[in-house]
Design goal:
This protein is an alpha/beta fold and about 375 residues long. It has 14 helices and 13 strands. The strands form two sheets. A seven-stranded parallel β-sheet has the order 3-2-1-4-5-6-7, sandwiched between helices. A six-stranded parallel β-sheet has the order 10-9-8-11-12-13, sandwiched between helices. The longest helix has 18 residues, at about 340-355. The two termini are about 20 Å apart. The model has no long low-confidence stretch (mean pLDDT about 90).
Length: about 375
């Protein structure tokens, strides 16, 4: 099958999953064509049967803001026509689903281009709910021949807020390649991250306000009172300065390491003893899944789709959002009880392998593609 994929190519869960899906599909023998304004950051080196088509943008004085969505539609149209794509799979509703619909309309009478739209979270819960975008988001989703959501939580939000029939949304969870995301990777960076042999607490995000990185620092400060530990913060965003200032205020500045954005997060997570995710909301929680695949127990908020990813009391602890004291208590218990930590670590890894591995999830996308192309999914 010849499959077009459009995603945001920068750091973020939707782009990471879309890129990994393309890599896995190519490994299964499909031909994959990425269409975006830049090469996806996780695409890396050359891979057979994977092609990248850059969206060309011209800077005209007339346009204060260049119309990327229209340029994307043209690129999708041209790629579908030239490469004879069987379908277009877009990740994140706005503007990708809209552009795909325009491209499909442009091809009308020449060839069919079924569209699969995967909803990842803030495209529904935040961006799509804004009055400026709600109508176009609903329109674009409903014009897709296939609709998938990464969690039951997100499906329920979509059905409720965008009046999409429940039977039109297929839940296919995010996934990881458990051959890459795994414990005990070499080279091990533990000596560099915790030169004093301390326990390593880790957080990965885009440092936006809803990730509550300030709570990460506050939880860590409490944990450190009970056991020697280092906090490793991976990623970047608007809340990073606030988190750094808070670390200094709480007296743990020397024990917090801000690494910024990294492409090889799997190598770092393999060193983690505990992963913190105190977010206000998560439609899935890909970072929590990646941590579990690497054997790191998770302490996270009981919000959104996280209960579908972290098994409470088995692979991690789910705490009411904002309860910093309870998160610190749960994290301290895991770090100080070796037997409990080992049990949670093994359970998280097993959960990732059995339920959320590429081997398990990618065939579900392939079957869904076949149904969409045959006209048996969506409507």
């Amino acid at each position: 099958m010849k499959i077009g994929i459009t995603c945001y190519p920068t750091y973020g869960g939707s782009g990471a999953v879309a890129t990994e899906l393309g890599i896995q599909l190519a490994a299964h023998g499909h031909e994959v064509h990425f269409v975006s304004y830049a090469q996806p950051f996780r695409l890396g080196h050359f891979r057979e049967r994977i092609f990248f088509h850059e969206v060309e943008m011209e800077d005209y004085p007339l346009f204060e803001h260049p119309p990327y969505s229209l340029a994307l539609a043209v690129a999708m149209h041209d790629t579908a026509r030239r490469e004879k794509l069987d379908l277009m799979h877009v990740h994140y509703a706005i503007p990708h689903a809209t552009s795909a619909w325009v491209a499909r309309e442009m091809l009308a009478g020449e060839r069919d281009l079924p569209i699969v739209t995967t909803l990842h979270g803030t495209d529904i819960t935040l961006v799509g709910m804004h009055p400026s975008f709600h109508a176009i988001t609903e329109f674009s989703i409903k014009r897709s021949q296939g609709i998938t959501a990464v969690s039951d939580f997100l499906k329920e939000e979509t059905v409720r807020d965008f009046h999409v029939p429940e039977n039109r949304v297929e839940v296919i969870p995010n996934f990881v390649d458990t051959n890459i995301w795994k414990p005990g990777k070499e080279p091990c960076h533990r000596a560099a991250l915790a030169p004093g042999g301390e326990k390593i607490v880790m957080h990965v995000s885009n440092f936006r306000s809803l990730k509550r990185v300030d709570h990460v620092v506050e939880v860590f400060a409490r944990i450190r009172k009970a056991t020697p530990a280092r906090l490793v913060m991976i990623g970047d965003g608007p809340e990073r300065p606030r988190a750094a200032a808070l670390a200094a205020e709480l007296g743990v500045k020397e024990h917090v390491l801000f690494l910024g954005k990294h492409a090889s997060v799997d190598e770092l997570l393999a060193c983690a003893d505990l992963f913190l995710l105190p977010s206000e909301t998560e439609s899935f929680g890909l970072a929590a899944l990646e941590a579990q695949a690497c054997g790191a127990p998770v302490v996270a908020s009981r919000v959104g789709g996280l209960p579908e990813v972290v098994e409470h009391g088995v692979s991690g602890w789910l705490i009411e959002q904002g309860n910093i004291d309870e998160m610190a208590r749960a994290g301290t218990e895991l770090l100080c009880d070796d037997a409990l930590h080992a049990r949670f670590s093994e359970a998280g890894r097993r959960l990732a392998v059995e339920r959320f591995s590429a081997r398990t999830v990618v065939p579900r996308y392939e079957a869904y593609y076949e149904a969409v192309v045959a006209g048996g999914a969506g409507a």
